[in-house]
Amino acid sequence: MAIQDEIVLYYSPQTRATGTRILLEELGAPYRLHVLNMKAGENRAPAYLQVNPLGKVPAIRHGDALVTEQVAITIYLADLFPQAGLAPAIGDPLRGPYLRWIAFYGSCFEPAVTDRSMQREPAPASRSAYGTYEDVIGLLEAQLKRGPYLLGARYTAADVLWAVALHWTMMFGLVPNGSAFADYVKRVAARPSFAKVGEEDAALAAEHEAAAAVRPAS
After folding, report:
1. Can you tell me the distance from the alpha carbon of 187 to that of 185, in angstroms, rounded to the nearest whole number?
2. Which residues form the GST N-terminal domain (predicted)?
3. Is residue 71 within 8 Å of 102, Cβ to Cβ?
């Protein structure tokens, strides 16, 4: 398998896969989209369940490698294109913090905001994956205040992951629209890759909505 092999991104607009597509743009990676209309249930079709049995996006195929889970995909892609400089190399003092904040997203932030959105109490502290929602938000806010990026002056793939997540969670009121969060998202989202993917996502989402509206009832 060569690095230059085209990457297939299993994709649906305005989902977690959006961040992966932005990252591919940032990396200058060769890729093509395998678009799934989730409003039509294409992510639950047998063909896609062979790719990801959970029926979730994103997933990528690169040669013989199939990678699911947003955090794993972020690490895989940024390491695959070291020339883009979006992943501190092994041995770089920033490598540990970089991995920490990517893992923190999946293991703490996602379950915390999910519980928040469902108005569920977290598990007792001895069994909670993240402690409390306030703990998670406070730790993240303190880190972002150091700015301008998650790791200070260095922009990395972790910023793509977090900026997309904070954009959506602030929009739905799951994260407070404080200056540390809002300024960070505005700064990262000003990059051309975010505008390009955002515009194309909006058009594709509209197509999916229209297709779902005319789909015959089963």
Report:
1. 5
2. 4-85
3. yes
Q: What is the pLDDT of residues 33-73, one digit of tens each?
A: 999 999 999 999 999 999 999 999 999 999 999 999 999 99
Domain boundary among 41, 67, 85: 85
Question: Does residue 154 belong to any structural domain of this protein?
Answer: yes
User: Do 123 and 74 share a domain, yes or no?
Assistant: no
- What's the CATH number where 29 sits? 3.40.30.10
Residue-wise pLDDT for 113-143, tens only, equals 999 999 998 888 888 899 999 999 999 999 9
For residues 41 and 98, is the Cβ–Cβ distance under 8 A?
Answer: no
Amino acid at 161: L
Q: How far apart are CA 17 and CA 168, in angstroms?
A: 13
Location of structure tokens 């992966």: 20
pLDDT at 4: 63
Write the DSSP string, 185-199.
HHHHHTSHHHHHHHH
Structural domain count of the chain: 2
